UniProtKB/TrEMBL annotation:
This is Queuosine biosynthesis protein. GO terms for biological process: tRNA queuosine(34) biosynthetic process. InterPro entries: QueA, QueA_dom1, QueA_dom2, QueA_sf. GO terms for molecular function: S-adenosylmethionine:tRNA ribosyltransferase-isomerase activity. Keywords: Cytoplasm, Queuosine biosynthesis, S-adenosyl-L-methionine, Transferase. Pfam families: Queuosine_synth (PF02547). SUPFAM superfamilies: QueA-like. It comes from Streptomyces diastatochromogenes. The keyword Cell wall biogenesis/degradation does not apply. The keyword Chaperone does not apply.
Length: 361
């Protein structure tokens, strides 16, 4: 079996964990743990016992935006997904077909110059495709209202048809989310961090696990089109860079919470393996050929076969380990997508004799 196998529809998480039964919380999802090709099964609440003092979790503080807005092209209804705000004031957007169950079909054949009417009298005009790889995402300019005001008054979280119903924006915020001074945020939730609760964070801290905040504002998902991720805004603060370097110099492990955290940290890491404070735009695509320089492990959701994120997982763990983990996830009926179960990739442990020098016996 291969990670390229199609995920059965019945394994999509339709509602958040805390809505599946009385007394449940966000950390009541399952946790698949990989160490090389060794796989074990846990619940997320066990995470503090799976990590050790001195480990470092790199977490994304980007808040999730209410990035889906209803619009009209003439008399036709559309849904606009606001993905990324450019430095020139334009937004990268995607037009979707509404179907009452989320918005899962990209609207094809929409030419440059198309005007979309938005609530409150605003209008959006498509100007040019985001890249030469296709016309799913466009740079667009909005007039008649500030986009963040439109999102705040008329937006809702982006939702796809595998979920059961619309949810309030609070359901899509992680415990690490912080308001951005300029109102920026992520079009879709940095979902690997969703299972964390304040209680669980406190327990991790009490056990000596440290946290390094970074920011990467995610755009809309691109799995359906086999597209690599496009440039996204990120920031790695000075304090976080220093902390990562200190942990790497000691006995701790640097574990990224989410593929967004990997992309941000690796974008700030030089060929010498040293992480330096950085901010701006990153177009880095982490592949097995490129490898990782700063990250030792990864906590992430379960990804669709078309997702470019799987290449990042292979860069961290290797193809054999990822294939083995996904075989177990399918066999164990783990749940996919943003409300689903989670996969923790840890480095293989060296034999005890290799970890002890001659004076340790």
């Amino acid at each position: 079996m291969s990670v390229r196998v199609r995920v059965p529809e019945g394994l999509s998480a339709r509602v958040p964990a805390e809505q599946r039964g009385p007394g449940l919380d966000r950390d009541d999802v399952r946790l698949l743990v990989s160490r090389g090709t060794e796989v074990t099964h846990h619940v997320f609440a066990e995470l503090p016992r799976l990590l050790r003092a001195g480990d470092l979790l790199v977490v994304n503080t980007s808040p999730t935006l209410a990035a889906a807005v209803d619009g009209r092209i003439g008399h036709a209804r559309v849904v606009v997904h606001f993905s990324t705000r450019g430095d020139d004031g334009r937004w990268a957007v995607e037009l979707r077909e509404p179907d009452g169950r989320g918005t899962t079909r990209a609207r094809a054949g929409t030419p440059a110059g198309t005007e979309v009417g938005l609530p409150g009298g605003a209008r959006l005009v498509l100007e040019e495709p985001l890249s030469g790889r296709g016309e799913r995402l466009w740079w667009a300019r909005v007039s008649g209202a500030e986009v963040l005001r439109v999102l705040g008054e008329h937006g809702r979280p982006i939702r796809y048809s595998y979920t059961e119903r619309d949810q309030p924006l609070s359901v899509y915020q992680t415990v690490f989310a912080l308001p951005s001074p300029d109102g920026a945020g992520s079009a879709e939730m940095p979902s690997a961090a969703r299972p964390f609760t304040a209680r669980l964070v406190a327990e991790l801290v009490s056990r000596g696990v440290q946290f390094a905040p970074i920011t990467l504002h995610t755009g809309v998902a691109s799995a359906e089109a086999h597209e690599p991720p496009y440039p996204e805004r990120f920031a790695v603060p000075v304090a976080s860079a220093r902390l990562i370097n200190a942990v790497k110099a000691g006995d701790g492990r640097v574990i990224a919470v989410g593929t967004t955290a990997v992309r941000a940290v690796e974008s700030a890491t030089g060929p010498d393996g040293v992480v330096r404070a950085a901010e701006g735009w990153t177009d880095l695509v982490v592949t097995p050929e490129r490898g990782v320089r700063a990250v030792d492990g990864l906590l992430t959701g379960l990804h669709e076969p078309e997702a470019s994120h799987l290449l990042m997982l292979e860069a961290v763990a290797g193809r054999a380990a990822v294939d083995r983990a996904y075989e177990e996830a399918l066999r164990g009926l783990y749940l996919w997508h943003e409300f689903g179960d989670v996969h923790l990739i840890l480095p293989e442990e060296a034999p005890h004799s290799e970890r002890c020098d001659g004076n340790s016996w």
